[in-house]
Amino acid sequence: MPGSQPGKIGRVFSLASLLMQHREVSRRAFASLKKQGKPALVLWHGVGPGDDLLCSAVIHESVKRTGKKVWIFSRNPGLFEHNSDVAVVLPLEQQFMNQLGTRGMPPITHPIYGEYNAVEDRDYVADYHIIARMCEVAGLQGEISLRPYITLTQEETRKGKLAEKQIVIQSSGNLAPAKPDAFTSQRNAGSKFVMRTKQWYPERFQQVADALASGWQVIQLGAAEEPLLSGVTDLRGKTSIRESAAIIANSAAYVGQVGFLMHLARAVECRSVIVYGGREAPHQSGYSSNVNVCGTQLCSPCWYWNKCTGVTDMACMQEIDADQVIAGLQQVIELQGTPLAEDRITLPTTVATALSSS
């Protein structure tokens, strides 16, 4: 063919063979290649939805700089539906990734934000926001907005309104890790983690739910294995990621612990009351638009997964009572309907004091 590029055509046909087993992915991938050429960034993070959701921040910042939509490997494609920054969600399969890496595509970026020490059962994380660290690993510089993104349709949002006045709550629960595979380890074994240092107490969440019962429909989200609270609308294990997002988007507040639903709430512009305790600090993983209830122990933030080295076991969680969380909810509810502060940081940076909000 006149003007053809044999090497490029060969790579396209090789990529076609690679993608044939995933027809819809193939359609989107070739549409993206035709429209914008090779993506500037190809990502993968892990198998859990929380870290995948945080990747949406990296994706958004990359597109702002390059104008090119991003490809991402994920087992949680629902997170990226209707996201105008994402060209293709690729299946998270090792063989698929290895083959794609030989097809002239950009190197696959793994924007991890910390290192896990299995002997100590502890993460080592920079003293600034994990989203900023992820952006650094992806090679991004300049001002970064520290928030994740998810795009819901109007119909999805409409279905998430279950009551005129609703609040979402999640109880504590030590969940057994899923079976490891090529992408997991003892540290990262699926979307269910055993992490004692993040756990508050079901009986205290129950006190919070009781305080809300007279004026609010309290909706419990989370995994089916988590302790059921009384007097709530029980949707544990019954909603998809996008359904959960829509319910939270229609809620006056989310109350829970550090984790996926906290990040999901920020993505849909819902303020939260988060029981932080002392494992990590809000400037490292949270949002200033939330009420973050922290312990006061000098050993915080420790980033241990399960053990506590404090003088009193889990003192950072023990000192937080239900009244503090209820007071935080009152603050958040009063702000319902007002814009959330958007935290920003300028890269490169090495200090937490660079964190600001506007």
Structure description:
With 358 residues, the protein is of the alpha/beta class. The protein has two domains: 6-111, no CATH class; 154-357, 3-Layer(aba) Sandwich (Rossmann fold). It is built from twelve helices and 15 strands. It has helices spanning 6-19, 23-36, 49-66, 94-100, 130-137, 154-159, 202-212, 241-249, 260-267, 282-285, 315-318, 322-334, and strands at residues 42-44, 70-74, 86-91, 108-109, 114-117, 122-125, 142-145, 166-169, 217-220, 233-234, 254-257, 272-277, 291-294, 343-347, 356-357. Mean pLDDT is 87; it is low at 1-13, 176-180, 184-191 and 352-358.
Mean pLDDT across every amino acid position: 87
Run of helices and strands: HHEHEEHEEEHEHEHEEHEHEHEHHEE
Strand composition percent: 15-25%
Helix content percent band = 25-40%
What is the C-level CATH assignment of the largest domain?
Alpha Beta
Indicate the structural class. alpha/beta
Would you identify the CATH architecture of the largest domain?
A: 3-Layer(aba) Sandwich
Strand order across the biggest sheet? 10-9-8-11-12-13
CATH homologous group name of the largest domain: Glycogen Phosphorylase B
Shape: globular
Number of domains: 2
